[in-house]
Amino acid sequence: MVTSGIEAAYSQALRAFRNPMLALLHRREAPLVAALLTSVFQPDRPVVSVADAHTEVADALSQLKAAGFDDLPDRTVRELFRSWVDAGWLIRQAHDDGLEVYRLSAHTVGALEITGRAGGGQSRVSRSRVRTLLDAVEQLAADADPDSASRQARLQREIDERRKELRRLDKHGITPVDDEQLLEEAENVLLLVRELPADFARVTESIKALQRETVTALRQDARPAGDVLRNYLDQAEHLMESTSEGRAFAGALGLIGQPDRLDDLAAQLDLVLRHPFATRLPEQQRAELRGIVRRIDAGLRDVNAAQHTASRVIAAQVRNHDPLRDRQVDELLREVIAGLGQWIPASRRAQPVDALRRLPRAHVESVRTTLAQLQPDTGPAPLTTMDDADDHAVSLADAQAWGGPNYAVLSGLLAGVEGRQALAALFADAPVEARRPVDLVGLLELAGRESATDLGEVAVVEAVRPDGSLRRLAFEGITVTGTNDGGSS
User: Fold this and answer.
1) pTM assigned to the model
2) What is the distance between the terminal CA atoms of the chain, rounded to a whole angstrom?
């Protein structure tokens, strides 16, 4: 199907008017929106906190209403700002200090520039504007010409013209320029300067758009982690070269980014403002000329800040990338959006919502800590009922029989040793009531305090418990030395 010229032109116009800039200019309330945004956002105030912007616009609307304007919107200030953000005229974002702020989008900056030019009078063909055009075309042709000889000839002509100008200055001095021509050139300079904020804003937004695309691609986790890391870390490093606006800005930065260039520009503007013709300029235009360096510097800072923020966000996403957690967050957000979609149609305006002050506590009766036993744990056997009628009295002798070592008897055994004797033999010859397992432990303890010699072999003895059962016990054999034959202890 062949598309006619008018159909193509109409389709192009439809796409153009979907642009937020033309949409703003096309709206019935465009004059009011342009006036309000111009009063809040100034060249030296590109970012305004949300609370201050709402307060200032509410005050401006009150003044307009008091002045007799009856075509003002009946919506609240918050609703106005929400609609402006949804239309792409404002950008709401979190500042570095955590405060939420508004910033004009690049489309709005361009629209306000158009309204400012249209309200300041019709543009006219001037000598300075034609010279700007000719210089731009000449520079374009010089950059596009691959012939080295023609470029050398062009440079030689420029050198000859400069020398001719120097000879003329030596002979006749400077010829004063008419004030009308100076005013004309000043207007051309202001026209060029007014386009800079929109250019800087477009670069900033392109960097933020690339940041969002990069983070979204990382969150989707559609490719291997190593491939994603290499690709996007490289984009974060060369972010300025990744977009057409960024490449254009990088080229312009080479011309105006050096501190000496900005210093020279400030000195030249100061010279212009001290000239007598500058008194014929309106105060607003003189202020714009004085603020050119500040505006350029602010634009450079905004672009660099956006670039650093994008690099920091991408690096943080790469460093903290967790596909499982990201999917859980995405699912949670989808559930929240679905819940809001069900709640909003059934709710009324200004309906209060009870905030969830704390998460609900899970009531869990028991938590299994091991899988070694798959059967539920059983409790201990019930206690047997004691019959008070039965005689379960325990005598002192029974308690002592099941108690600790009888140190008195054991000390007597050690004291009766003559010469050297193995401790195992001494224990075997002891009375039955002193041959309990605990008595062996006590005997070893007392023998350690005396002169004991290690035999280097394992000794085995047979102990008798109070209930008559036998226990065979092994220990490191030792000998003890008695004191009856005069040996040392």
Assistant:
1) 0.49
2) 122
Please check the confidence at residue 69 and state whether its pLDDT lies above 50: yes
For the chain, give the mean pLDDT.
Answer: 76
CATH of domain 5-119: 1.10.10.10
Q: What is the dihedral of CA 147, 151, 156, 162, to 10 degrees?
A: 170
Q: What is the mean pLDDT of residues 73-85?
A: 85
What sign has the CA pseudo-torsion 322, 312, 237, 329? positive
Note the pLDDT of residue 462. Answer: 92
382-403: pLDDT as tens digits: 887 766 555 556 677 788 888 8
Q: How far apart are CA 86 and CA 78, in angstroms?
A: 12
CB environment 369-399: b (16+ within 10 A), e (fewer): eeeeeeeeeeeeeeeeeeeeeeeeeeeeeee
The CB-based long-range contact list for 300-307 (8 Å cut-off, 24+ gap) reads 300/200, 300/253, 300/256, 300/257, 302/46, 302/200, 302/201, 302/204, 303/200, 303/203, 303/204, 303/207, 303/249, 306/203, 306/204, 306/207, 306/208, 307/207, 307/239, 307/240
Q: Tell the residue number behind the tokens 């959006």, with chain if given.
A: 337
Q: How confident is the model at residue 273 (pLDDT cuts 50, 70, 90)?
A: confident
Q: Can you tell me the mean pLDDT for 276-302?
A: 81
User: By CB neighbour count within 10 A (0-12 exposed, 13-18 middle, 19+ buried), where does 3 fall?
Assistant: exposed
pLDDT of 80 reads 87
The 3-class secondary structure across 223-234, one letter per residue, is CCHHHHHHHHHH
Q: In the prediction, which pLDDT does 418 show? A: 81
> Taking the domains of the chain in order of start, what are their residue ranges?
5-119, 180-342, 405-481
